[in-house]
UniProtKB/TrEMBL annotation:
Keywords: Oxidoreductase. Residues 10-185 form the Transketolase-like pyrimidine-binding domain. InterPro entries: Transketolase-like_Pyr-bd (IPR005475), Transketolase_C (IPR033248). Pfam families: Transket_pyr, Transketolase_C. Its cofactor is thiamine diphosphate. It comes from Streptomyces osmaniensis. This is Alpha-ketoacid dehydrogenase subunit beta.
Amino acid sequence: MAESVTSKNMALAKAINESLRRALDSDPKVLIMGEDVGKLGGVFRVTDGLQKDFGESRVIDTPLAESGIVGTAIGLALRGYRPVVEIQFDGFVFPAYDQIVTQLAKMHARSLGKVKLPVVVRIPYGGGIGAVEHHSESPEALFAHVAGLKIVSPSNASDAYWMMQQAIQSDDPVIFFEPKRRYWDKGEVNTEAIPGPLHKARVVREGTDLTLAAYGPMVKLCQEVAAAAAEEGRSLEVLDLRSVSPLDFDSIQASVEKTRRLVVVHEAPVFFGSGAEIAARITERCFYHLEAPVLRVGGYHAPYPPARLEEEYLPGLDRVLDAVDRALAY
């Protein structure tokens, strides 16, 4: 069967590239800024070819100064532009943390709604690629704690394409976490589809015995876990949260009321992670439906280890299956 003109099979990184290209082409106020995003096309080639086609005034190579990148984007947004800034790696965002949480997140409230800051901050995040120190962090919970920011993370190429479109069109600042270990995973992208709401979770596998909730890089792992569990006669539902802030608690609740058990999986440390908020809120909402406590699987409360040890640190098939076994044992 021939591939549709509007449907293409592409890697997640390419889907983001195509989405950025569409945004640049359709709105002259969209700009891309970041370290090496222009001539190099980004270290993961996510912005490859964009400066060549749209020029150095639209796709801007910046100095190595994350605070300056985000601060400049805030100023441009105040003048009517829609900047999309790239933080080259997750661990490099912290020099810009002050600008993001004290300026970008607060300006709308500070101005009593008169000022909008349509800025997208792209952050490749997570491990699994054998990177060096400060290149494999998962800091999403640090930003989700801050009111005024939207936090999203796609798990597949189609979501990467459409969620980027929606993030750029948002009048609120969006932190767009890109799962770098999934950059090369391919999937179908319909560029003429009508996307669902940006912050709506999606059931990617139906099940009846337990819900696995994840986002970004862990969704594929949870699908593998569900497939392995099915061989043992267990039916696991996999819920792709897609958004960390706001969280779609209604969809999580609906799934848990059906399966009566929940395991939340993320790469970030379990301690004070996003899974803790989900566990607390679902325990409040679903107390009389739950047949087991909400369990969490994630990284350890320790600095991210050297690449040789990261497979011991990151959640894997066995660690998630162990949590499934414990939940089903109640």
